[in-house]
Structures are given as structure tokens and as C-alpha cells.
Amino acid sequence: DADVTQTPRNRITKTGKRIMLECSQTKGHDRMYWYRQDPGLGLRLIYYSFDVKDINKGEISDGYSVSRQAQAKFSLSLESAIPNQTALYFCATSAGQKNSPLHFGNGTRLTVT
Amino acid sequence: QKEVEQNSGPLSVPEGAIASLNCTYSDRGSQSFFWYRQYSGKSPELIMFIYSNGDKEDGRFTAQLNKASQYVSLLIRDSQPSDSATYLCAVRNAGNNRKLIWGLGTSLAVNP
How many Å lie between the alpha carbon of B64 and the closest alpha carbon of chain A? Predict the structure, then answer.
């Protein structure tokens, strides 16, 4: 079973719709992240959370919101989807030590038409 | 200047050869360095990390760190076609909430 689980794996939605991507983890990590990946642009950080009461904007937070419902759950919402939000989205977790790597979920491929 | 730079490739090597992937970074205060492998459409998976100057070996992989010259490299010995992927370098700074700064990746093709 995956340690970091993202749902759904694929989603096609229309412009203007609100959608939520969910992430849950069994690794016991406090830190959780949402990234998007676009060809040629690499991984870009959307939001991150260091614990349940801590939410921080990343490089590209406009048009997105997040909720940290529990230590193990971190969801990403697109309030009104637009076509340039079409991308591959990854959730990741890490422990708090400086050498702690990120562990990624399997990703959600989102298409906004 | 980008904070973490990688040659985009593609780097093409024959099966059985050594593949050498390089990464340079701009922040001298960087503390931890990570190499990830990513197959097309899949999530990045950690290969190894290094935080001390010198070499660190794990199986066919060796990470090399030179903080004075601000580069980190990944060597893959006895390259296999299954090693064909994009390799991402990530660097964690001392400040900036210790977030990871990502390179854009180097595409590696191992030819049978």
C-alpha cells in the first residue's frame, strides 16, 4: 500500500468548476506539500504545511486553497478551475529534520477544458 | 541565475556505461542535496541524499558533493535501459524554511 495516497488519479473538469484533490499519508510525517509539475517548468510549490495549525503559501498559490484536516490529510482545492491549471499535481510529505527527503504520492493528472 | 541548475539533456549512454549527471547550486548555505528519479508521468522517487563533502555510494549509484565548487553529481554505474528517466536534483537551504529548491531535471537515455 502506498504511504502517500492521492485521489483521484485522473480528473477532467470544466472551466469554472470547483474541485478538490485529496492526499492522505501513513508515514506519520508532520510536513505536507502540494506541487504542480508542467513540462519545462519543473516542480513548483503551491502550498505547504508544517503541522495541522500551520499553512504557508508557496511559489504559485493564486487560484488554489488548502486544508489540513488532520496530521495525515492535506487537501488542495481549485475554487474556479481554469485551463492553465491543467497539470500533474503531487502531494509530498517529509519529517522535520534538515536531511529529511520528500516522499511523493502517485500524482493526480488534472485536465481543465 | 537559477538557484539549482541541471543540463536538460538528453544524455545518451550505451548500456553498461557510466552515466554522469551534474547539478550546480547558487546558495553557499545549502545543507542537504537530493537526487530523485522520475519516469514519464510518474512521481519522483528518491535515489539518495548527501550532505557531507565527498562521495556516497549506494549500489550502482554514487553521489558526489563539492561544496566549495557548489556542485553535486550522480554517477550511475553499469547503466541499464531501465535507468532511462529524468533525474531531478533538489537542494535544501539553511534558511527559507528549509524548503527544497528543485532543478528542472536531466533526461537520461540508456541505449541497449
Answer: 16
